[in-house]
Structure formats: C-alpha cells, structure tokens
Design a protein that fits this description.
The complex is a heterodimer of chains A (306) and B (386). By secondary structure, chain A is an all-alpha fold. Chain A contains 14 helices and no strands. Chain A has helices spanning 2-16, 26-53, 58-63, 75-82, 92-123, 129-138, 144-157, 164-171, 175-188, 191-199, 204-232, 236-241, 250-264, 269-299. The two termini of chain A are 44 Å apart. In chain A, 30% of the residues are buried. Residues 300-306 of chain A have low confidence and may be disordered. The longest helix of chain B is centred in the middle third of the chain and has 18 residues, at 167-184. In chain B, helix 2 packs across helix 3, helix 2 packs parallel to helix 4 and helix 3 crosses helix 4. Chain B has helices at residues 43-51, 93-103, 108-121, 137-149, 167-184, 195-201, 219-224, 229-234, 289-292, 327-334; strands spanning 2-12, 18-28, 32-36, 58-63, 66-67, 78-81, 155-159, 187-192, 204-209, 212-217, 241-248, 251-254, 257-260, 275-280, 286-287, 298-309, 314-319, 349-353, 364-369, 375-377. Helices cover 25% and strands 31% of the residues of chain B. Chain B is an alpha+beta fold and 386 residues long. Mean pLDDT of chain B is 87; it is low at 331-345. In chain B, the strands form four sheets. Chain B has a six-stranded mixed sheet with strand order 6-7-8-3-9-10, with helices on both faces. In chain B, strands 13-12-11-14-20 form a five-stranded antiparallel sheet. In chain B, strands 15-19-16-17-18 form a five-stranded antiparallel sheet. Chain B has ten helices and 20 strands. Chain B starts with a strand and ends in a 9-residue tail after the last strand. The chains are: A mainly alpha (306), B alpha+beta (386). At the A-B interface, helix 10 and helix 11 of A face strand 6 and helix 2 of B.
C-alpha cells in the first residue's frame, strides 16, 4: 500500500513539471528555471519602475521610494500634458504619430521586400544568387554607427536629410528578414507545391500570391515584428538625418526632452519623460503579445528540423 | 503516332552525375506505361523532364509530333500526381481540384460542374469543403488524382503515387487508378520502384537501371523473357534463382549436378566449355515431377534450409553447391525493392511450393525442372542467351 502511495506521489511530482527539457536532470531544470525567473525579474524591473513613477509628480519621482506609489496621483494630469505642446519644441503626439508612420511603412515595406526576396532566393536559381545573398547578409555585420558619417554625406547629396523617406527607405531593408524568409520558404513550402502549381498552369506571379504567400504568413509575422520593433526603437538614424523637430520619432523627441530636462532642470519634464516612455513601449508590448506564437515559431527556424 | 516520345533523353547534373543516359521511350495514345527501377535509377528525373520541371541536357521530348523541350510546364498540358500529393494545404478540396481550371479561366459554372464530376468519380463529394489536413492518406491521394483528371489532360504523369499508402489501400488504389485511366484514356507515364505495381498496372514496362533502359516490354514478356540479368533479378518476387554453371555437350553442369538440356540446349551451342549463368523462376521448380519424370525433365537436388509458409504458397529457401550468380551486384541494385534478403550464406536459392507438400527445413528434396523454362545469360555482358 505504501509502495503504491509512493508511486502516486512520484507521478504527481512528475505531472507538476510537464516540460521535459532535453532529458536534463530535475535539479538542472530547477536551476535553469530559477535563472530564467531571475532574468525575467531583472528585465521587468525597469518596466515596473516606469509604471509606478508615471503616476508621480516631478518632486516625488526624485524624493519618494522608486518602487512604490506616492500621492498625489498625477497620472491623468501628466497624460493630458503629454499631448500638449510643452515649450515649442514640438509635441509628443506628433512624434508618436511619426514613429507609427515610420514603423508601419518601414516595417511593412521590409516585410513585403523580405517576402519577395526570400521567396526568390529560395525558389529560383539564377547566376550570382549566392553572391547577392551573401552580400545582403554581410550587411548584417556592419553597425550603423560605423556608416553614420558616410550615410549623412550620401543623404545630403540625394536630399534625404529632413525627409521622411530618409527614415523609411533604410527601414525597408531587412537582411535578417530576408534570411528568415528564405529559410522559411525552403523549410515549409515543399518545392513539389510550386511544381504542382506550375503544372496546373499557374503563372509565377499567381503561384507566389495564391500558393506561396498564404503559407508564408507565420514567417512574415516574425519579420514584421522584427522590423517594426527595429524601426520603432531606432534612435541613431533619425538623430543623424533629422534636424527638423516635427519629423522626429518618439525616441529622438524624448531624447530632446531629456536634454532639456537635465540642462534647464525646469518645465516639469521628468514626469512627461517617464509617461512618454511608457506610452511608447505599450504598442510594442501589445504587438509582441499578439504575434508571439508566430515569433516563437519563427525564431526556431533552421535550428529545428521537423 | 505516339502520344509521348523520348529520344536520347539525357540528364547530366551540374555535379557531373549522369542521371539519365540516352533514354528512348514511346508511349502510345491511351497507353499506360510504367517506368520501374531501384531508387536513384533516374526514373523520377525522366518524369520531371517530361513535365518540364527539369531542364533537358540533350535529347528530345515530343508530345504527338510537337517538340516540347522549350515549352514551360504550364503550357505543356500535362497533369501530374506527386509522390507526396503536393496538395495546397490552405485550399479546400474543391479549390485544390479546381485550381488548374481557375488558372485556365474556365467559367465558374463549368468549373464547378467538372470539379463535382471528378469528386463523384473519386468518392470525394462529401468532403469538398475540407482542407487536406482533415483528410486521410487515401483521401488525399484521391484529391491529387482529382486535381489531375479534372483537367482532361493529353498526358498524365504519376510519380510513385501509391508509395505513401499502406499495403491494403495501395492494392485498392491500384485498381482505382486503372479504372480512371480507362475512363479518361490519356497516355500515362507512371513511375514506381515497386515491381508489383509495374507488373499489374502497365501495358508496357520500362525497367531502368543507372539511367539506362534495361528492357521495355509488356509485363508478361519481362517476366518470361528477361533481356538481361538485371531484369531477371528485378522482376519477380521471390526473385529468379541465378547460378553459375558450365555447358558441356547437351548438359548443364551446376555444381556437382548435371542437367540434361534436350532441345533447349541448342542455344547454348556457342557456349560449350564455357560458363553461363542459369536462371530459374522459383515456381518452375516442381516437387513430385521428379518421380513421374516425363521425357526431357531434368532434376535438381537441394537441401532445404528455411521454409516460409505464406498460406497460399510456401517459399523453400534451399542451397545447392553451385555458386549464386552476381547476387551481390543484384542485391545492391535491387536492395530497396527486396530489402530483407535472407542471409545469403545459408542458402542460395528459393522454390515456390504448395504448402500442402509439407516440405520442412533440413530436408533434402529433388525438384523437377523443365529445361525449356530455364533462362541463360552471358556472364560477361549479362545479356540473355536466346
């Protein structure tokens, strides 16, 4: 009887940890889980701080305990101020909408180009395809800070300084997106499918739109997420190319506020900065939550063979 | 005029591998031709070249009297069934079947009528709105067939369409495919590695080995008059017994045994004093005939090692003291089709017997052999001696 109870208890314990992690020992799994929890806490602390402090006055931000609320509750007041023109520098709402525009057009464009390019590289053999692909991938290795000065000089020549296209065009190029889509097409769209469609008399354009594209959606969601987030958070590029405040995205605009806040010490800018930061990241958190199942499957591409 | 003709069709890949070497093949109007061979023999490559999915290194593909080498697959008017069916997973059964018609801009009403006809013919009417993922293997196979027949094509290509089905379903679909073929009457090129499919389905069968056609004939002809050692070993299950022997006067010396050849021996006249390879089908070894011994029957004594009873028949694996011929070569070539060759050391021949004969392992038996049923091959060229 006791033997049976012992087995039952073991079974219960096993059921409590449903994930078997590559056959690792239970102790190892616990340690790894603890590490993950710590990392999650570490990552979430700034977010918690921002949420709490978005409700405070400037004085309270500096004087009260950072991880607890302090009265007065200023959230709605600050929120209303956020969308007003504070000191003629331009408005947060303008910057926020700029960010939405750049991310939507840039990220959307990057997704479209990655879909076309990835499918092309995966499905068609043509002279120099490997060279082209290699060159694009090599672009991944060049940090933007390295090309900042030459980029500025080139932009000045082609009149892209202070133009929204100066921001959008580079955002539409996503080497990692191209790489992901090529791999995705190779792995998840059997060539027999495109062969069958050819034999069924479909043109290449029709095969792409009618057969391949619907099957590429999960991969494209990953690329969309990557490139939208990339553009949304981009700071260096708009900093270099925009001198006109009205064109700033939220990142650069708030950078400007931050400068003013430290130099003038006035204007009650800190609560706006904190809340502005919060409002800026909420759409990204929502987007991640919405698309995370695609995101996860997309990240596994190429590493796990089905 | 042939519906499909392949002339000196050759495929050399960029890696330098020759997949197909001067293939010549004619498929008549309404004919069902099977390309059979072990994996890697070039049969699928040939089919894909006919479909236009593979570039042609040299040679010609003709449909009727029109050379189609440069014609794109979408303009060739061929229908093809793929090994893995290649159904469009995001489209319904009806959309899958009707896809080719949509591409041709066939009016909606006619399209629906033809899709429903094809679906009825294949017993798919009740699942037209399902997605491929909701179908069983056999049903998917039917959808793939439906997609092909709805087009009423002039040329029908099938690439191992039954290899993903279980044995029972395979037998059922075999007759179904033949029925469909008889209904639409299009010239059909069917690729398989399964010699049973080849024998049961083909009007004619081309046996391919290393990119070369070994023999192109009706199934009965392939079985009864194999042109060479490869065909002899490939067609037939259990496979033909092949042994080294030498020819003396009117007798065949097989190990320590001598078989009188009678009139059958005349073809061997040029081989007197030389080695030949002698082949005998497992069913041509008959128990009991030895005692009756009608005129001209030779006998062969063998030690039975293993008996496999299959119900309707039993296979007696035996050994004789003559070396088995080229079994290594054949086993390598036929490896896929006859995956589980019993250990060659224990026995070197097999007889197909009536299970009621009660032959047991360890027994010494004497088979009667009609010399007219023996096959002879040149050991150097592998060609049949006739």
């Amino acid at each position: 009887m006791s033997e049976r109870r012992r087995l039952e208890r073991l079974a219960e314990r096993d059921a409590a940890i449903p994930v078997e992690l590559y056959g690792l020992k239970r102790g190892t799994v616990s340690v790894l889980t603890a590490c993950c929890v710590l990392f999650a806490v570490f990552t979430l602390i700034p977010l918690v701080w921002v949420i709490i402090n978005s409700t405070k006055t400037q004085a309270n931000i500096f004087e009260s305990f950072g991880f607890w609320f302090a009265s007065p509750f200023e959230f709605f007041h600050t929120f209303a101020n956020l969308f007003r023109d504070i000191d003629g520098d331009g408005t947060y709402s303008r910057w926020f909408l700029n960010t939405v525009l750049y991310s939507a057009v840039g990220g959307g464009g990057a997704t479209v180009l990655a879909a076309l390019g990835g499918y092309g590289f995966a499905r068609f053999k043509f002279t120099g395809s490997r060279l082209f692909f290699g060159t694009v991938i090599a672009g991944l290795l060049v940090p933007i800070t390295l090309v900042a000065v030459p980029l500025y000089l080139v932009y000045a020549k082609v009149h892209l300084i202070n133009s929204i296209w100066g921001m959008i065009l580079p955002s539409m190029v996503s080497p990692i997106g191209l790489y992901l889509m090529r791999t995705y097409v190779q792995l998840s769209i059997p060539s027999e499918l495109t062969d069958a469609a050819r034999i069924d008399g479909a043109s290449e354009i029709r095969i792409f739109f009618k057969i391949a594209l619907p099957l590429m959606v999960p991969g494209l969601m990953t690329v969309l997420l990557l490139s939208v987030v990339g553009t949304w958070n981009n700071y260096i590029l708009p900093l270099i190319i925009f001198s006109n405040n009205t064109l700033y995205p939220a990142t650069v605009g708030m950078g400007l506020w931050s400068q003013h806040a430290t130099t003038s010490g006035d204007a009650n800018l800190y609560p706006l900065l904190v809340l502005g930061g919060l409002v800026t990241i909420i759409p990204m958190i929502a987007l991640f939550a919405l698309l995370q199942r695609y995101w996860r499957s997309g990240l596994l591409l190429g590493s796990v063979a089905n | 005029m042939s519906a499909i003709s392949l002339e000196n069709l050759t495929k050399v890949y960029a890696t330098g591998v020759t997949a197909l070497d001067r293939l010549n093949l004619e498929v008549g109007e309404g004919e069902f031709v099977v390309l059979v061979g072990p994996s890697g023999c070039g049969k699928t490559t040939a089919l894909r070249m006919v479909a236009g999915l593979e570039t042609i290194t040299s040679g010609t593909v003709r449909f009727g009297d029109q050379v189609v080498n440069g014609v794109s697959p979408r303009q060739r008017d061929v229908a093809m069934v793929f090994q893995n069916y290649a159904l469009y997973p995001h489209l319904t059964v009806a959309e899958n079947i009707g896809f080719a018609l949509t591409n041709k801009k066939v009016p909606k009403e006619e399209r629906e009528r033809r899709v429903s006809e094809a679906a009825t013919a294949l017993g798919l009417s009740s699942m037209l709105n399902r997605k491929p993922a909701q179908l069983s293997g056999g049903q998917r196979q039917r959808v793939a067939m439906g997609r092909a027949i709805v087009r009423e094509p002039s040329v029908f290509l099938m690439d191992e369409p039954l290899s993903n089905l279980d044995a029972k379903l395979r037998v059922q679909m075999r007759s179904e495919i033949l029925r469909v073929h008889q209904t639409i009457g299009a010239a059909t090129l069917y690729v398989t590695h399964d010699q049973v499919e080849a024998m049961t389905m083909g009007d004619r069968v081309a046996v391919l080995h290393d990119g070369v056609v070994m023999q192109y004939a009706a199934p009965r002809e392939l079985y009864n008059r194999p042109a060479n050692l490869f065909v002899a070993g490939f067609i037939g299950s259990p496979e033909m017994n092949l042994h080294e022997a030498s020819v003396s006067e009117a007798e065949l010396v097989l190990g320590s045994q001598r078989l009188p050849l009678g009139p059958a021996g005349t073809v061997l006249a040029p081989y007197r004093g030389r080695k030949v390879i002698v082949g005998v089908r497992p069913e041509d070894l008959e128990l009991g005939r030895a005692t009756e011994k009608p005129a001209g029957t030779a006998t062969l004594t063998a030690d039975v090692r293993v008996v496999e009873v299959l119900g309707s028949e039993s296979h007696a694996f035996f050994s004789i003291d003559a070396p088995a011929a080229g079994q290594g070569v054949l086993a390598a070539a036929v490896g896929e089709a006859e995956g589980d060759l019993p250990a060659a050391s224990a026995h070197n021949g097999v007889a197909r017997l009536d299970p009621r004969a009660g032959v047991r392992s360890g027994q010494r038996v004497t088979f009667g052999v009609d010399p007219a049923r023996l096959h002879f091959f040149d050991p150097d060229t592998g060609g049949a001696i006739r």
